[in-house]
Amino acid sequence: MVEWTEQERSIINNIFSNLDYDDIGPKALARCLIVYPWTQRYFASFGNLYNADAIKTNPNIATHGTKVLHGLDRAVKNLDNIKATYAELSVLHSEKLHVDPDNFKLLADCLTIVIAAKLGNAFTPEIQATFQKFLAVVVSALGRQYH
Amino acid sequence: MTLATMLSKEEKRLIKEIWERLTPVAEDIGSDALLRMFNSYPGTKTYFSHLDISPGSSHLHSHGKKIVLAIAEGAKDISQLTVTLAPLQTLHAYQLRIDPTNFKLLSHCMLVSLACYLGEEFTPVAHAAMDKYLSAFAAVLAEKYR
Questions:
Q1: From start to end of chain B, where are the E strands?
Q2: CATH number at residue B137
Q3: DSSP per residue over A43-109, as a string?
Q4: In this protein, which residues make up the domain named Globin (chain A) (predicted)?
Q5: Is B128 part of the contact surface with chain A (CB cutoff 8 Å)?
Q6: Which of A1, A68, A79, B99 has its CA 20 to 30 A from that of B74?
Q7: Are A18 and A58 in contact (CB under 8 A)?
């Protein structure tokens, strides 16, 4: 069972309440596809992913990026129950989407970097550590139902 | 064939340019990256039990500066990475013996420091190039381990 201090809850809620999901979601997903090109394997039907510019301006990727961030929102609102909250999503990613769970960490790292670029020095080492703890729990929950 | 040869000309140019810009603030970037690593990955602190690594400490700053300057030096001529890093390879293999999984942790925190410092300028393309370079750097550093 994951324990969250009051400070950690506050940090996580703070980060998400100040995020523009329509901006950050697309940026994080696009970055993941550019920095780790093999992740493009899951988006073959999304259209032109030929180069960085194509990926950054692809409307399907943008829509999906926003969707992913709204998915994360559910974890933020259910910090004490992330594993159960994500059980269905985990099954979806395993049985239907067939996503290698190692990829979740890659997207998580890209999201961290996008938020760091946005917040600058306000993204302190302590805040980073808390945010990464949150993402680690999310990643673990998403991989939980694989078998 | 090393990872270093898998960087395109444009990527090598980007990497060289970024580290040239960061050399004057090597101490800030380096100490920031180390602090982030110690906060997110407490196990990494075990390698520094003989130093004072509290925020602002002179050990933290001089160490951070040393690391960034070595990375910047390697960026000047990536094709010569094995030659440039030869002394550091020996140091890490026989004296420091830092488990190489830690290199990934510091690399990630270095990327976060770069993102904080460069903001939007740390584009996905720059990020990709930098990630590849730091991976290559770490791989070369660990070459003499066994």
A1: none
A2: 1.10.490.10
A3: GGGG---SSHHHHHH-HHHHHHHHHHHHHHHHHHTTGGGHHHHTHHHHHIIIIIS---THHHHHHHH
A4: 3-147
A5: yes
A6: B99
A7: no
Q: Tell me the CATH architecture of domain A6-143.
A: Orthogonal Bundle (1.10)
- Residue-wise pLDDT tens digits, A24-63: 999 999 999 999 999 999 999 999 999 999 999 999 999 9
| CB-nearest partner of A123 from B35, B116, B122 | B116
Q: How far is CA B69 from CA B13, B65, B89, in A?
A: 17, 6, 15
Looking at CA atoms only, how far is residue A104 from chain B in angstroms? 15
Burial of A72 (0-12, 13-18, 19+ CB in 10 A): buried
Rounded Cα–Cα distance for residues A32 and B46 (Å): 31
Tokens linked to B16? 């060289």
The pTM for the full model equals 0.92
Give the range of the structural domain holding residue B72, as residue numbers without chain letter.
3-145
State which residue of chain A sits closest to B122, comparing Cα positions. Answer: A117
Q: Using one digit for the tens of pLDDT, what is the confidence trace for B7-29?
A: 999 999 999 999 999 999 999 99
Cα-based angle A142, A39, A25 (whole degrees, multiple of 5):
65
| Total domain count, chain B | 1
